[in-house]
Design brief:
With 361 residues, this protein is an all-alpha fold. It has one domain (32-350). It contains 13 helices and no strands. It starts with a helix and ends with a helix.
C-alpha cells in the first residue's frame, strides 16, 4: 500500500466518523422517544395486524384506532396519576418553603408495628411536636430529599407526555411496519451475517415483546388500576403510592404491600361511608391481585429474560434518564443480554463441533 492510498483510506475513515458523530448528535434529543416508540410498536404490532386484517388490510386506519385506544386506556389514567404525583410533591415543597408544613402526631397503633414500630413512633412524635427544630436539625437531608422528589415529579410528568408522543410515533411505525421490519432485517443480516442476522432479528423481537408485555405491561396496568382506585377513594399521595406499586410489580413483589395498608387507612382515616369503604376495599384488594390474572395473559410471549437483568435495566434506566428509562432500560438491557447469550451459545456450539470433528479424525 502506497502512502497516497493510506492517506486516502485514512481520510475516508475520518469522514465516516465525522458523519456518524454528527448524525448521532442530531438524533440524540429524540433517542428516548424513538426507543420507546419502537418498543411500543414491536409489542403492539401483532394486535394491530389482527385489527388490520378485519379492516380490509388498512394499515394506517388500524394503527390510528390502536393509538386512540391506547390513549384512552393508558394515556388518560397515566395523566391523572402523574398529575396527582406532581401536585402532591409540589404542594409539599411549597409548604416547606412557606413555613406552613405540618405533621400530624402518630397514632398509638404505630408503636405496635413489627420491628420498626417504636423507632418510627419516637421519631414521628418528635417531629410532629416540634417540627421547626426537627427541620433545622435535618435541613440538609430534607432539602436534598425534596430536590430529588421535585426531580422525580418533573420526570414523571415529562414521561407521561413522552408516552403520549411515543404512542403516536409507534402508530406511524406500525402503519409502515412491514417495510420497517424488512429494513431492520436487512441491517442485522448485514451486521451479523446472513445466518445469524435472522436469528438476532427474531430474538430481539421476541425478547422485546416478552419483557414489554409480560413484565412492564403487567406492572404498568396494575399500577394504573391501583392508582385510579386510590385517587377516587381520596387516598393522600395516590400518585406516589401508584409509583411504588409500579416498582414493586417490576421487582415481582406483591402490590398488597401497598394496598393492604391503604385499605386499613380507608377504614380508620377515610371519610367515606361504610358502603363505599366496602367498595374500595374489594376493588383495591382485587387490583392488588390483578397480576395473577394479567401474567398468564401477557407473560410467556417470546423469551423470558432473567428477572435481575430486567430489574437492573429498569432501575438503571430510571436513574440515568428518568421515568421513561424505567421501561426503555429494562427492554434494552434484556435484549442486549439475550443477544449476548445467543452469541456465546453459537461460539460454544462451534467449539464443541470442532472438537468432535477432531476426535473423529
Amino acid at each position: 500500500m502506497t502512502a497516497a492510498e493510506f492517506t486516502d483510506g485514512l481520510i475516508r475513515v475520518g469522514l465516516i466518523l465525522i458523519m456518524v458523530v454528527a448524525s448521532f448528535q442530531v438524533f440524540s434529543p429524540f433517542m428516548n422517544l424513538m426507543m420507546w416508540a419502537l418498543i411500543l410498536a414491536v409489542t403492539i404490532y401483532p394486535s394491530q395486524q389482527k385489527l388490520a386484517s378485519r379492516m380490509g388490510g388498512r394499515q394506517g386506519r388500524s394503527a390510528t384506532v390502536i393509538v386512540f385506544i391506547g390513549l384512552l386506556i393508558l394515556g388518560l389514567p397515566l395523566a391523572l396519576i402523574g398529575s396527582s404525583l406532581a401536585e402532591h410533591v409540589t404542594a409539599l415543597v411549597e409548604s416547606y418553603h412557606a413555613g406552613t408544613l405540618a405533621l400530624p402526631p402518630p397514632k398509638e397503633s404505630v408503636a405496635g408495628w413489627p420491628f420498626i414500630g417504636e423507632q418510627v413512633y419516637k421519631g414521628w412524635s418528635a417531629a410532629s411536636s416540634n417540627l421547626h427544630d426537627f427541620i433545622d436539625a435535618n435541613r440538609s437531608s430534607i432539602e436534598a430529599l425534596l430536590a430529588q422528589s421535585m426531580a422525580v415529579a418533573k420526570n414523571t410528568a415529562g414521561g407521561v407526555f413522552m408516552f403520549v408522543g411515543a404512542l403516536i410515533v409507534a402508530g406511524i411505525m406500525m402503519a409502515y411496519g412491514k417495510s420497517g421490519s424488512e429494513a431492520i432485517y436487512a441491517i442485522l443480516s448485514r451486521l451479523a451475517g446472513p445466518q445469524q442476522g435472522p436469528r438476532v432479528h427474531a430474538l430481539a423481537t421476541m425478547t422485546t415483546r416478552s419483557v414489554a408485555a409480560g413484565v412492564l405491561g403487567v406492572a404498568l396496568i396494575q399500577a394504573i388500576l391501583v392508582g385510579l382506585g386510590m385517587a377516587f377513594a381520596g387516598v393522600p399521595a395516590a400518585g406516589v403510592l401508584a409509583f411504588v406499586v409500579l416498582l414493586l410489580a417490576i421487582m415481582q413483589l406483591p402490590a398488597l404491600l401497598v394496598t393492604v395498608p391503604v385499605i386499613v387507612w380507608i377504614w380508620k382515616g377515610g371519610d367515606s361511608g361504610t358502603a363505599m369503604n366496602v367498595v374500595w376495599t374489594v376493588y383495591l384488594f382485587l387490583a392488588g391481585l390483578s397480576d395473577n390474572v394479567l401474567k398468564p395473559v401477557l407473560l410467556g410471549r417470546g423469551v423470558d429474560a432473567p428477572m435481575p437483568v430486567i430489574l437492573i435495566g429498569a432501575l438503571g434506566g430510571m436513574i440515568s434518564t428518568g421515568f421513561i428509562g424505567l421501561f426503555v432500560g429494562a427492554v434494552v438491557l434484556a435484549v442486549g443480554y439475550q443477544i449476548f447469550m445467543q452469541w456465546v451459545a453459537v461460539q460454544t456450539h462451534a467449539i464443541e463441533t470442532e472438537e468432535v470433528g477432531e476426535a473423529g479424525e
